[in-house]
Amino acid sequence: MHWYLDVLFKKDSHKVLNKTAAMNLNVLRKIALAILKKWTPIARKKVTSMQQKRVLLSMALHKFLPSILNM
What we know:
By secondary structure, the chain is an all-alpha fold. The protein has one domain (2-69). Helices cover 66% and strands 0% of the residues. It is built from 4 helices and no strands. The protein has helices at 2-9, 19-38, 50-59, 61-69. α3 (50-59) packs across α4. The protein starts with a helix and ends with a helix.
């Protein structure tokens, strides 16, 4: 899990000083990671990497939001 968080979200490069903010960001990253692991884009036939899923969602969230909410 740490590898995914570091590679996908560049966790090690974040310098959050407030402990509460750091904990909140950590929870949000883990939720996003769980969504990325579970979600498979309907429009794609082949296996999609985590990075490709992240880019797809960032570019067209409105298109994929219903499929994410129906998981």
